[in-house]
Structures are given as C-alpha cells and as structure tokens.
Amino acid sequence: MRKASLLITGVLIGASAAMTLPHVPGLLPGAAVAAVSDTYRQLNLFGDVFERIRADYVEKPDDGQLIEAAVNGMLTSLDPHSSYLNPKDFKDMQVQTRGEFGGLGIEVTMEDGLVKVVSPIDDTPAAKAGVLAGDKIIALDGENVQGLSLNEAVEKMRGAVNTPITLTIRRDKVEKPIEVKLVRAVIRVQSVRSRAEGEVGYLRISSFNEQTFDGLKDAIDKLTAEIGADKLKGFILDLRNNPGGLLDQSVAVSDAFLERGEIVSTRGRHADQSTRYSARAGDLTNGKPLIVLINGGSASASEIVAGALKDHRRATVLGTRSFGKGSVQTIIPLGSNGAIRLTTARYYTPSGASIQAKGITPDIEVVQDLPPELAGQVDDTRGEANLRGHLTNEGTKDGQAEESGSQAYVPPEAKDDKQLQTALALLRGVQINQAFPPNPADGVPN
User: Fold this and answer.
1) Which of 157, 272, 256, 172 is nearest to 216 (CA)?
2) pLDDT over 70, % of the chain
3) How many C-beta atoms lie closer than 10 Å to residue 75's C-beta?
4) Which of 147, 207, 222, 298 is the most buried (most CB within 10 A)?
5) This prediction's pTM
6) The CATH number of the domain covering residues in 192-442
C-alpha cells in the first residue's frame, strides 16, 4: 500500500509554479483561444473590483485580507469542504494530522472564563509536575487568561520543545494559587483509547492522524494479553463522532482486520486519477468477532473503515446512519502563502457504492435513549446532505431524496450507552441478532 496523506481530507502534494493551457476536448484551436480569452476577461473583472474597493471603500481596507477573502470565496463556492488555509491555519492543520506537537500534555476546556484541566496525559510534563484534572489555569507566564479564547490559551501553552512556561493554578480546597513550572516536550495525541469490558476488547478511535494505526496495534496487543487470547470473545471498534482524518490511516485500520480484498477506491475528474487500496494478509485480531459502532457524527475516514468492514462482512455495523461525507480533499501547499484544501475525488466502498450525501446504514440500528433534559428535542446532527453546495451522489436518481443527519448522542456513562451495551450483549451471546455474526460469504468478492 503506497503511503498517502489524503486528508479525507487528502494527499499532500507540491504545487507546481509552471502553468500550461489545458487541452479542451471538442474545441477547435480557435474556440480554445476564445475560451481562454474569456477567462482572462473575467480575471480583469476581479482586478477592477479590487481596485475600486481600495480606492472608494469608506475605510481603508487591508489588501491581504481582501485577497484572502476572495480566494476563500472562490473555493467555498465549489463545495463545503474546499477552502483556503492561511499560513497559521495550515500550520495548525499539519499539527493536527501529524498527531504530535511541542506542549505540556493536558486536555483542557473553558469554564467560567478560565482554562480547566480535563485530564493530564500520562508521562507528559503536566502529569509529572502534578497537574490534576479539575485544576483551573488562571495565568500563563504571569499573564491572566481571563479574556482569552480557548484556542488562544492553547496556542500560548504550545511551543518549541525544551522551552519553559509557568502555570498559575487554582485548585479546589487549596487556599492560594499554585505556580507550576514546566518545560515543553513532544506530546503525541492519543487518537486510540482502549479498555477491557470483561472478556470483550473495547477500541475507541477519536480521529485518524499519523499515530492512529500504531496506537490501534498496541491496543489490540495489550487487550489480547490482558484478557487472554482464549477468553477474548471479540472487539468493539467505536467510531462514533469521529470526524475523519488521513486516508492512509483509515486504510491501515481497515487492513488491520482484513486478510484480503479492496478497502476503498477513489475516483477523480479524469480516468487516470482513479486509485484502489487493497488489504494485505494478516488480521491483527486473528479473526475475532468484531462490531463497529457508528452514528451521525461518524464522517469521512471513519466511514471508509465502516464501509470496508461491512461490505466484506468482516464486522457488524451497529448504531445510527453515518454523516455521509464521501469526498477526498487534497492539501496543496502554496509556499509562504499557506495552502488550499481542494476536493479532488470521490471515494467508493468495496461494493462500488458512494456514501456521498447518504452515509453508511448500520446492519443493526440502535437509537440512544435521550436523558430527560433532552427529551422532546431533535437530536439529529446535520449530515452531508444538509450542507449547502454539497456534491450530489452520482447514484441518486432525479427526484430521489438524499439522506439527512441522524442521531449523534452518546451518553457520558457506559451503563447508559444503549449502543455499547447492545454490542457487548451480542459479543457475550446474551442477545441474538441475525446480522451478528455476519457471513463472510455474503460479502463482496475478494
């Protein structure tokens, strides 16, 4: 399998500075020249408007902001997932997909205008210094955090490895603020979490970054050793509310459970832009039963995994219909000017189906019970079909409705999680459903 950084969100490629006029099928040379001339007349329109704004707008505009807004408007007019990334946004995206950065190792949120520690990450500067869940950070290097957004505070805590920072912390039942001096280190984002649910291995993937497959492999090995290969009844792969990430990681995660066969194919505008990704021999779980959990927040790369395992009947998919993002974005760097995120292909499951604006339909639908405070409220997340300007599904017939969003609620307590408890009951043999275990013979040919 060739490595790709397709961000399902897409493949990282270099932008060429050279330009050639395209061959336009069906046009004579004279007609092609006319078409190009018309394009340049339209570009002159942009220049005329730009100069008029600079000269006559009521306040002096920022030229850079005007250009950025124009470029972004051009891209966002294509579909909801194409956009311009300024240098800062491009850097942030690289950090997110790389899955590691210079920082302190704490998961944080904002509460009452202060940064609250949700959890320190094991074996990081924050954990070693004794930072605790529930601590409230009131100052960074002596600067009050009141008034900062969460993103601004996080940006200040991140930085070059081996650089110092002092946190001023307010802790419950401690009268005076505590000052904690830390030195930033390389922090790896934990996209895979796992635990033993009795004799069942639970695997949760929150996003697909460069660390995901390695994290999954380690988790499978750890759970197999902890539970015991002879006692292990199977695995639950939880992809609920997973927004996606790197294509190569979704392929690798699918491959972890498959012995052979196509995982996904991508098809671009031209025939030579089609690519197929196939599994290699070696199921990391040795064929143990598998249930995949999805919901209305499962999008893109997570839908590739669910679609591949469902089509091959390697897993039973349980939950509610997924988001329906069936397109691939290519990140094209623009030197010092950031990058563009451009939709360049659609992807298809092994059966040849596009999930664009439709989503993955679970083999077993299980809708969560809403708590009293949410009773009577609509709990359907907006799906791809609800996004203005979304790509249509090529298989949708005229007049045929596309699928909107579906439930994305996940209870905070495992005991209240109806989808998780149903999966556990099936794997333990307490509950029976004709969709579990699936029959591989009913899957797509390998």
Assistant:
1) 256
2) 88
3) 18
4) 298
5) 0.83
6) 3.90.226.10
Rounded Cα distance between 29 and 366, Å, is 59
> CA end-to-end span of the chain, whole Å?
16
Task: Collapse the DSSP code of 426 into the 3-class scheme (helix H, G, I; strand E, B; otherwise coil) and give the result.
Answer: helix
- Those residues with Cβ within 8 angstroms of residue 380's Cβ, 6 or more apart along the chain or in another chain: 296, 404, 405, 406, 407, 408
As a whole number, mean pLDDT of residues 181-188 equals: 92
Q: Are 371 and 411 in contact (CB under 8 A)?
A: yes
Alpha helices in 256-349 (DSSP H): 301-311
Query: H-type helices in 170-300, by residue range?
Result: 212-227, 247-255
Cα torsion through 399, 305, 361, 367, rounded to 10: -130
Burial 152-171 (b: 16+ CB within 10 A, else e): ebbeebbeeeeeebebbbee
- Structure confidence by residue, pLDDT tens digits, 298-328: 999 999 999 999 999 999 999 999 999 999 9
- Exposure letters 388-426 (e unless 16+ CB within 10 A, then b): eebbebeebeeeeebbbbbbbbbbeeeeebebbbbbbeb
CA distance 104 to 167: 10
Contact 399, 357 (CB under 8 A): no
Residues of the chain with CATH 2.30.42.10: 101-188
78 phi and psi angles, rounded to 5 deg: -80, -55
- The per-residue pLDDT for range 106-157, each reduced to its tens digit, is 888 888 888 999 888 878 999 999 999 889 999 999 999 988 888 889 989 9
Give the CATH superfamily of 101-188. Answer: PDZ domain (2.30.42.10)
Q: Where in the sequence numbering do the catalytic residues fall?
A: 300, 311, 325
Distance CA 374, CA 178 (A): 38
Residues pairing with 8 in the sheet: none
Q: How many CA atoms lie within 13 A of 127 on its CB side?
A: 12
